[in-house]
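Fold these two proteins, one after the other.
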Amino acid sequence: LKNVMLRAEYPYGFSPTVSTPAAFSDNNVWSLGDLSPGATKKIQITGRLTGENKDERTFRFYIGSAEGGAPAANFKNILLCQISRFIYQLLEFRNEHNMMEFLRCQ
């Protein structure tokens, strides 16, 4: 795959503080470059989540490819998505995903 991009949609109350590697755009878009079959990439996102005890929060992650030859924040070709839900019980939340865990978008 060429020009692979990852976009995160954060729930209300989540503020990202740092990610490794750094985001390409708006603290929620990463350029993963070209990926050969079997290749993996790791992105670690750390942030602060505010809410009430037992609030449910949903994080959405989309993988797609940028059109044309350059990375773009608004990629259109969605290849995979992951929806992560959890019950709020912590002041800080850290979420890591292996690209192999992503599901096909419905």
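Now the second one:
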Amino acid sequence: EISKSSSCGLKKKRTKLMETKAEFGLRGEESAASFLCGKGYKIVARNARLGHSEIDIIAKDDQRVIFVEVKTRQNDDFGVPADAVGYNKRKKIIETAEKYIYENNLP
């Protein structure tokens, strides 16, 4: 059992049954990777860092390389995951993907 401060300064206890935000996000990435593998993609890299940017999953099949930003949600109360990837984030993903393609001499 771990004491953890909530956003309002109150202490709440986190049991071993509760996940941290990082654990929850990792579970989402595992789920996304499993989904892609089931669709015939091979996972090339996970949490690939290129400069100051990161791509959660890079995967490929016989015809294409895809770059995946994973957003894990428990529910849609604060919007669907795609809503969390705004214009600036999409632009950064594209720039990072282009850099990866260039550095790895991909077509």
